[in-house]
Each structure stands twice: as structure tokens, then as C-alpha cells.
Amino acid sequence: MQQFSVVISGFDHYEDVRVNPSYEVPKALAETGVDGLEDVRVDIHAVSLPVSFAKAWPTLLDTIETVHPQIVIATGLKHAARGVMLERCATNLMDAAKPDADNVVPRRAPIDPDGPAAYWTRLPLRSILADFAHDGIPATLSSDAGTFVCNSLFYNLLNWTSAQEKVLSGFVSLPLINESRHPQHGLPLRQLVAAGADVVRESVRYYRRPSSEDILIA
What we know:
Layout: E1 2-11, H1 21-32, E2 40-49, H2 56-67, E3 71-77, E4 84-87, E5 89-91, E6 118-120, H3 125-134, E7 139-142, H4 149-161, E8 168-174, H5 189-208
Parallel strand pairs: 1-2, 1-3, 3-8, 4-7
Antiparallel strand pairs: 4-8, 5-6
Helix pairs in contact: 1-5, 3-5
């Protein structure tokens, strides 16, 4: 049986958000695991990060260097999202309209002055979207993860990934948790956990059998 280590990160606290999906979903996946994969054992490690330009990536990197995962999935919150948003691109830009957890407000500054303008995700977005459609999970592609801490984390993660021999990584933005029977904004927690499981499952399948048909960035 082949064994996979997967790190899933979220954030520990967002201002004015009582139940944070990017904290709850990684924790739930680490506790329940992911089924539906034959001859594979998946160990999921959840890590919660501060909403900090300076501290989020070093905190995630500490976990990565301890676990040595084959797959790293970062998650964050998009307040206005109707459903799950698969992020295609991380840009080399910090441009905050509000302070982070350290009261830092970078304006129009590069994340890495010597780095490329952007990186594309390493996750199989086409097959993930197909799973979402099968499971009735509202989802869409997003051109980028904005210019706040989520994007900074995503960029640093992909920059690190580019130097690895074989690691998949990417970023998924989650909507607010909404337990209404027919929510017009946000999704129930069970659907968000199911979405996270789909991302893990398809990433493991793609890692084992890569196909250009699974990639969708445009």
C-alpha cells in the first residue's frame, strides 16, 4: 500500500468571523481522513496559521519540513464567495487595505523582489471541479488569491514547491459557513469538508498518474 502525507493549512482567526471554515475544514479532514482511494493510505496533517505576512509562511514551512509531504493544500477565506473557489495563480504582490494580525499594512510591495511575477497552481483543477460537480458542491475558478496574506502564503508556497523534485501544492478559498437549508451565500460545513476531501483525493490520484487533461489554469 502506497502512503501519502498531505499537509492542509488554514488560518487561526479572522476578524468578525465566528466560525472560520479555513480552521474547521483542515481540522475535520485530519480527524476523519479521506476515503475512496484504493491501495493508498493518506495521512493528513492540519496546521493553523496566523493571518500575518511575516509569520504565515514560516509557520507552514515548519510543518512541511517536519512532515515532508507529497501534497500541500493551503486554504483561506473569501467572505463574499458563494461557493468554493479554486485559485489558479499567485502573484508577486502585497497590497493590503487593512492591517494583518501584526498590524502591518504593506502597500504595492513585492513578496520577493527577485522572484517571478506569478506562479501557477500545481493542483489538478479540472478533475477537482468534476468531483465538485458530481457531489453538488458549488465552485468556480478564481484568477488569483488577491493581494492580502492568502496570496502571500500561496506565492511563497509555490516558490518553495518550484524547487522540489515532486510536490504538488495549491490554494483553495472557502466561503463562509452557512447552515441554512438553501443558502444564497456560503455553504454548510459538511459540504466544505466534502470539498476538501475531493481536493485531497484528486490531488493524490493526479500525483500517482499525472495527466495534462487534469490541469486547468485558464
